[in-house]
Design a protein that fits this description.
With 165 residues, the chain is an all-alpha fold. The protein has a domain of 102 residues. Helix content is 64%, strand content 0%. The N and C termini lie far apart (92 Å).
Amino acid sequence: MRTDPADTGGLFIGRRPGTGPTRFRVPPKPGSPARQRVDGYLADVLMGAMAVLSLLCWGPIPLASLWVGSEVDYLSGRVFLGIVVALLSLFPLLFGILMLLRRLDNAWILVRRAAGHDQRRGVMTRIFATTAFLCGAGFTFWFLVIHGPGSMITPGGGETPPWPG
């Protein structure tokens, strides 16, 4: 009885045509130990590239989009146009990075399989969530400890104003 959602495509009624698991008449031969080691290193490189690209989504790409928007605002003198250009440059960059991350994740799964691991799921969501947490924690530390929200009693961040005269 086939009721496992992994076998039926997520439903308990059957599988869509063409989405069944790949079955080989003869299982493919694993690579040599040296080749598997090289594939393991390549998987590590791909994972590092995914981590770097994920970090770009939380800092440099939004800052670059804001910079482009500020330049458009400065050159045109229209704040609304600068905001629109910043948003129109932000979304294609972020979604382009996410598309690239997805392709790297699929390549990572294939390389991990070639390295001799039974890899069925990708690592992109874990990397993206980890970078989001780390960047959020870093920003919170910077905002609360390094920069500080300032004093509500004395405006100006607690600085003593110079004596007049």
